[in-house]
Amino acid sequence: MKEKFYITTPIYYPSGRFHIGTAYTTVLADTIKKYKKQRGYEAYLLTGEDEHGQKIQTVAEKRGKTPQEHVDEMAEDAKKLWKLMNIEYDDFIRTTEERHTKIVQQIFDKFMETGDIYKGEYEGWYCEPCETYFTETQLKEGKCPDCGREVVKMKEEAYFFRMSKYADRLIKFYEENVEFAKPEYRKTEMINNFIKPGLEDLCVSRTTFDWGIPVLKDPKHVIYVWLDALTNYITALGYMSEDDTKFKKYWPADLQIVGKDIARFHLIYWPIFLMALDLPLPKKILVHNWIMMKDGKMSKSKGNVIYPETLIDRYGLDATRYYLLREMPESQDGIFTPEGFIERYNTNLCNDLGNLLNRTVAMCNKYFAGQVPQYNGTPNEVDKEFEEFTDSQIQKIEEKYDKYDINLALQEIWVLISRANKYIDETTPWVLAKEENKEKLESCIYHLIENLRKIGIVLKPVMSETSENILKQLGITKEEEKEWDSIKKYDTIKQAKVIEKGEPLFMRLDAKEEEEYIKGTMKQ
Ligand code: MSP
Predict the structure, then answer these.
(1) Any ligand 1 atom below 6 A from CB of 24
(2) Residues 407, 325: contact at Cβ < 8 Å?
(3) CB burial class (10 A; 0-12, 13-18, 19+) of residue 355?
(4) By the 8 A CB rule, do 427 and 444 touch?
(5) How many angstroms separate the CA atoms of 453 and 476, rounded?
């Protein structure tokens, strides 16, 4: 039986159009899912939308829609975008669906019974026009951070979750599960910033708006966002419902991906909710940084927003996915620049990868009428060294993928590509051909094809179309020649014929023109 791998993205607020930052989380999750699938796991990817709350209600009103109409439209748009981005999700959960709301109400009731939830008073700074509470630190010069108007101190009845009760258990869990958070320092941040100063109980209900799930036994309260939102990861699997086969099969999650702004909710509140439900905790929470612009966060008012569709329409999906995944370092934010995008496209995709394929296919056609030479089993000095280098790179690539370090996996793939380009310069097949050194020439072309086959396979999770295209051009058609395990061998290709005329994978771009183009779309 296949081993399962359950992976989740955050569920997105449908408050506006998704930019490349929000798309990044989903592309990352999709890539890891595809890698796991390639490695033989039964991988299951959950994504969805977080549809309740004051903000959504306000956005809908501004658009002259009911909140339900608004979220329905946004969910369709999100699904369209994920299709365009070739995201292979297995389920799309919406928090307004009955399968979710019903269970959240039951969970709330259960917490009331166990005493984890109690009724108290919420106090904060309230902006009347925005109908929103803010904490002291959220205020901007003492005024509403959204509209800039005066705020008043207000109190309202609210339910709270007793987080404090679980603080020691959480710290113990952190200690026993060193790899729970990736990177690990995120855990230390949580301990120092939130747990050590005294973990505050979390407000889990509101009476100031009604676009939310009502508390069954006290319906003037709606369940406040985080209890509603976080539980999606289990309600989607059928937790506490009649058919809980998926829950039994997939929970606990193997990997949950979140951006740094929501690390606190996933590293503190989420494990505590699960402890209170007596459920196993996720194996790993991967916290990623943000995609920023040179002048800070992307925002419409600054005119610096990049939408995924803009890049996909003009440069293709694979180039877009490649850029997003390659540009995100683990230790700091990634910065999007039009110059950087075009540079990566021209250098990495068009020159390094595209030319390697093109030259290899052309030489195989020229010297062997397209027929891929057989592996001779006894590589010469040069080829042996090339094999050893390739083997060690393949190992590194696998390690990086296994650690979910996709940007590093891509770096290692490009080291391999560069080595292959260098190998052509070293072996000079055109000289071998002139010298009629048939044996060496056969071995050289075989090794290049073999190397590119491996590159095609390891690129699949990130760029599936390019991967297919590479294998097709090399004449690799049999399933066993495309499997991950075959990249550790040298005698896999039995009979292959490259295509007659290599098609360029990526066309060289005019840097100035394209940079201007991208900048132009940001101002629209
Ligand atoms: N609804 C909550 C999540 C609930 S999960 C139970 C939420 N939604 S969000 O739409 O605001 O953000 C969703 C994800 O997008 C978060 O992981 C966030 O970090 C990520 N990103 C938003 N802007 C981003 C960038 N500029 N760059 C990278 N990721 C970004 O929070």
Answers:
(1) yes
(2) yes
(3) middle
(4) yes
(5) 8
pTM, entire model: 0.96
| C-beta of 11 in contact with ligand 1 (< 6 A) | yes
pLDDT band at 20 (very low <50, low <70, confident <90, very high): very high
Question: Which residues have CB under 8 Å from 57's CB, separation 6+?
Answer: 67, 209, 211
What percent of the chain is helix, strand and coil (3-state, nearest 5)? 55, 15, 35
pLDDT confidence band for 225 (50 / 70 / 90) = confident
Q: Does pLDDT of 131 surpass 80?
A: no
Closest CA to ligand 1's atom 13: 12
Q: What is the Å distance from ligand 1's center to 128 Cα?
A: 27
Say how far apart CA 67 and CA 311 lie, in whole Å.
30
pLDDT, one tens digit per residue, over 501-514 is 888 999 999 999 99
- Sequence letter at residue 167: A
Q: In what order do the strands lie in the sheet with 91-94?
A: 91-94, 42-49, 4-8, 255-259, 285-288, 181-182
Query: How does strand 291-293 pair with strand 213-214?
Result: unpaired
Contact yes or no for 116/269 (Cβ under 8 A): no
User: DSSP string covering 100-151, please?
Assistant: HHHHHHHHHHHHHHHTSEEEEEEEEEEETTTTEEE-GGGSBTTB-TTT----
Q: What is the percentage of the chain residues whose pLDDT exceeds 90?
A: 86
Q: Which atom of ligand 1 is nearest to the CA of 10?
A: 5
Contacts of 483 (CB under 8 A, 6+ apart): 457
Ligand 1 atom, smallest distance to 50 CA: 1
Give, in order, the Cα–Cα distances in Å from 43 to each of 6, 32, 321.
6, 9, 20
